[in-house]
Write a structure and sequence with these properties.
The protein is α/β, with parallel strands linked by helices. About 35% of the residues lie in helices and about 15% in strands. Bound molecules: zinc ion. Zinc ion binds next to strand 7.
Length: about 425
């Protein structure tokens, strides 16, 4: 909504928001170009809007001649249909979700490109994916936030209490926004960071003593958006026995660099969201120790990383891939929740949300997401993923966040 334009302009002029980390920068290294994390008003019309998504999914379904099936699997808080597209008839299911943060817009576009490819291509790779996998994609899982071009959804605590009367005296959850954030004013239209609303117990019902909660605690499924994703996940578990792979598409800060270089990170990957439930740190989720597959998550990430490195021959930007910070404990995210439930899990964090980059680099960044997704699907479909070395995951370069600290960024940007 109302971006803080004047403030942002000052920061752009000063170019002051980015400072490279001296410790990792060789003395001969050129300084990176100026980069600002300050919110500003950017055009975003090149990205697929909600209305355009409806048209495009309908088109893909028609031209796919029955390969792609689109269905409505719920409603957002403001009554927008939650859409799902399914392609392939294979025994392994891959669930892909995008734009749970409504200002993170390359995911839906990459998913549409992928559905178009899988729905229409007669290449051997497309055929193998369709035969070995069932790909289930939910391209815009926070459509109200997407329409407002902001992180949070469009829902008040009073609406939550009306739906869950047992919360009548509970305080609002910690992830309820009522004040300005990332240049968006939530005071008139409050909302929640729905990417902290998942709970590893898929049958969980909200209890007043679990509020306000915190980032390192599970969420509550209080939003219709996360309820819809959970219900899809459960129905896929029932149909396939397990959801083999879960991929969630996000954006992060605009000014991170590849360590020791002046190159901005195109995207970061991660397969680590919660402590291993078989260890003392993960004891709170010990009941999931048998289903948790951290090595498989690493292999899936390596598949995406390798595909992007191979594409760097065509465009060096595809080679600027780093590992997302690994010291996270986020059981309330879809990734943490579904990983505990047995899915191999992959996080994509693309450079820059709309308030910093707008549609700049849109085509390249969207293509990078597509290449990573295709790398994972191809590797799972061929069985190659099982032969990838999980240790290669630990060799992916970390992300140089400059002067920004983990504490400041995890809650804000992922
Ligand atoms: Zn995000």
């Amino acid at each position: 909504m109302n971006r803080m334009r004047a403030l942002a302009l000052a920061a752009v002029v000063a170019g002051s928001a980015f400072v490279p980390a001296a410790a990792t920068a060789p003395l001969t290294m050129a300084a990176p170009p100026p980069c600002s994390e300050e919110p500003r008003e950017n055009p975003i019309s090149e990205f697929t809007s909600y209305d355009e998504l409806l048209v495009e999914l309908d088109r893909i379904e028609r031209v796919s001649a029955g390969r792609v099936a689109v269905e409505t699997v719920g409603e957002s808080n403001r009554g927008r249909d939650m859409l799902l597209a399914r392609v392939g008839t294979g025994p392994k299911v891959v669930l892909v979700t995008a734009e749970i943060h409504g200002n993170e817009k390359t995911g839906p576009d990459a998913v549409l490109d992928l559905l178009d490819f899988l729905g229409t291509s007669d290449s051997s790779r497309a055929k193998q994916i369709r035969e070995q996998l069932t790909v289930v994609a939910m391209p815009k899982i926070n459509p109200d936030g997407a329409a407002l071009d902001r992180r949070g959804n469009d829902m008040t605590w009073q609406e939550v209490q009306a739906r869950f009367p047992q919360l009548a005296t509970a305080p609002p959850s910690w992830n309820y926004y009522t004040e300005p954030r990332q240049g968006d004013d939530y005071s008139e239209r409050p909302g929640f960071d729905v990417n902290r609303d998942y709970n590893p117990d898929l049958d969980y019902q909200p209890q007043p003593q679990d509020f306000p909660g915190s980032s390192d605690r599970p969420g509550w499924f209080i939003s219709p958006e996360t309820q819809a994703v959970r219900d899809v996940y459960r129905s896929l578990q029932a149909e396939f026995g397990a959801v083999d792979t879960y991929i969630d598409l996000h954006h992060q800060g605009a000014c991170y660099t590849v360590p020791g270089t002046d190159r901005f990170v195109t995207l970061s990957l991660s397969g680590k969201f919660v402590a291993d439930p078989a260890t003392p740190e993960g004891a709170a989720y010990a009941e999931f120790a048998d289903t948790f597959r951290p090595e498989y998550s690493k292999q899936l990430n390596v598949a995406a990383y390798n595909a992007l490195q191979a594409a760097a021959n065509r465009n060096p930007e595809f080679g600027n891939i780093t590992l997302y910070p690994q010291d996270t404990n986020l059981p309330g995210t879809g990734l943490g929740t579904f990983q505990l439930n047995g899915s191999g899990a992959v996080l994509f964090e693309v450079r820059g949300q709309t308030q910093t980059l707008g549609e700049q680099h849109r085509a390249m960044l969207t293509r990078a997401v597509y290449i990573g997704l295709d790398g994972i699907l191809s590797s799972v479909a061929s069985g190659q993923v099982e032969h990838l070395d999980p240790a290669a995951y630990d060799r992916i370069p970390p992300t140089d966040r400059g002067k920004q600290t983990m504490t400041a960024t995890t809650d804000i940007e992922n």
